[in-house]
Amino acid sequence: MGAFVISKRYNDEYKFVFTSRKGKVVFTSLSYELKFECEEDIEKFKATIETADFLKFKSSSGKFYFKLMMEGNHFATSRKYTTSLRLQKGIDEIVRYGSSSEVLDFSGNDFIFSD
């Protein structure tokens, strides 16, 4: 099962990543000014994952990635994959485990684990 991991960016804004069962980052969210906005979007995503759209792209260097769209808005961007098959496996993992994944909060000094 994967996990949503909340952390802070260097500019003190919040973000989250979805990590695979093996601990690799699958996608990274956009930035959030407030942590509760980040937490709300994770819960909204988990509840409506079946409506997500995955727009697939190929970079100029030949790597594959996707943009995760929710309700027509850009929600997150994936890591770069070497093949389209690996890209699809990343998407499949999100669809399979995203709604039941735990949320880990590494944004402060105290680490908070929640379901």
Automatic annotation (TrEMBL):
Q: Which InterPro entries match?
A: YegP-like_sf
The source's domain of life comes to: Bacteria
| The protein's name | DUF1508 domain-containing protein
Phylogenetic placement of the source organism: Bacteria, Pseudomonadati, Bacteroidota, Flavobacteriia, Flavobacteriales
